[in-house]
Amino acid sequence: MKQSVFTESDQRSIPSFDLTNNQEQVLFAYKKMENIWDETDGEADLPHRHNFFTIIWAKSGSGSHLVDFTRYEITPGRIFFLAPGQVHQVITPQRPTGLVLMFTQEFVCRYNIGEKFLKMLALFDIAAERPYVDSAGKDISSLILISDSITSLFESTPTERERFRNESVASWLKLFLIECSHYIESKEVENTQLMESGSHIVGEFKELLESNFKIWHQVNRYSSQMGLSPDYLNNVLKNVTGLTAKEMIAARLVLEAKRQGVNTLLSSKEISYMLGFNDPAHFSKFFKSATGENFTDFREGAFS
Predict the structure, then answer these.
(1) Strand 16-17 to strand 48-50: parallel, antiparallel, or no bridges (unpaired)?
(2) Are residues 173 and 209 located together in one domain of the fold?
C-alpha cells in the first residue's frame, strides 16, 4: 500500500468535490468501501471536502478517519456522518467492506427529508462530540434491510423502479437515519425539565452559533438573543452536550481557523480579522490556549 503524502502546497488547496456518477452530477449515489479500496489499490485519499452529505458504514476493516483535523479509529460497525464542507481523509491499510451513501442538499429538500429533520437527529452536527455511532453488538437487521433495499434500487433496472427511484431512496434513507439515531448514546440528566427543553435550546443555539460565531464571541450575545440568562443557557448546553456555551464558541472558532489555515493562503493576521479578532495577538493567544499549540506550528504541521 502506498503512503499518502500531503505537501505544503496541498495544505493550501484542499480539494472540494461535487456529487457525480459517471462524470454526471447527481443528487444521490452509493459506493461499496471494498470497491473504492480496489479502485485505488488501497492508497489513502488526500484530505478533501465534499459539497454533499456522506455516510460511511464500515462493516469490517480497520484504519483511521480524519474528520476536521481530528483522527478517529475505523472499527467494524462504526458509521460516520459528514456534513457538507467537512475536511476528511480515510486510511484503511487492509481491504474493508462497507457502504458509503452520499446525497446533496437539493436531495434533502426535493424529496421531503427536510433540513429540520436532519438537525433534529443531530447525526451530521459538526459541533457534536464525535461524528459517528457504533452499531457493533446491536441488532442491525433493520439497517441491513434498509441498505439492501437502497442498493437494489440501483442494481436492478426495471422502468417502474427508475421512475420513482429517488422518492423510494429518500424514504429508505430517512428510515436508515432514524435507525442510526437509536445508536446515539444519551447522557444521563438529573434535571428532567432541562432535558425536555434542552433539545430545542441546543438547536437554536447551534443555529445562532453557525451564523454569528465570527462576530459574537461572548456567551451573553447568544443568551440575550435567545431570551435566556447566560447561566441557564450554559446549564442546558452542559447537560445535553457536555460542553458550555463558551466551549462551543471556542471550538467553532478553532475549527474555522484550522480550515482557513490549511485551505487558503490568507495570513494568520487576515484570518484573525476574518474571525472577529481585532488584535492578531489576541487570536494567537486564543488559539494557543484552546489547542495547546501555536497557529503557525499547526499550519506547518497539518497532515504531516
Answers:
(1) parallel
(2) no
The type of residue at 98 is: G
287 and 210 assigned to the same domain: yes
For residues 204 and 207, what is the distance between their CA atoms, to the nearest angstrom?
Answer: 5
* Range in 161-170, 271-280, 284-293 with the lowest mean pLDDT: 161-170
Give the structural domain span for 262.
192-301
Domain count, the chain: 2
136-156 pLDDT, tens digit per residue, is 999 999 999 999 999 998 876
Q: How many CB atoms lie within 10 A of CB 61?
A: 19
Helices 230-241 and 245-263: crossing angle, nearest 10°? 70
Candidates 261, 283, 260, 288; CA nearest to 273 is 283
Question: Which strand (E) or helix (H) includes residue 183?
Answer: none
Q: Is residue 37 part of a domain?
A: yes
The predicted model gives 73-100 an average pLDDT of 94
How far, in Å, are 40, 49, 63, 190, 295 from residue 298 at the CA level? Answer: 29, 19, 23, 39, 5
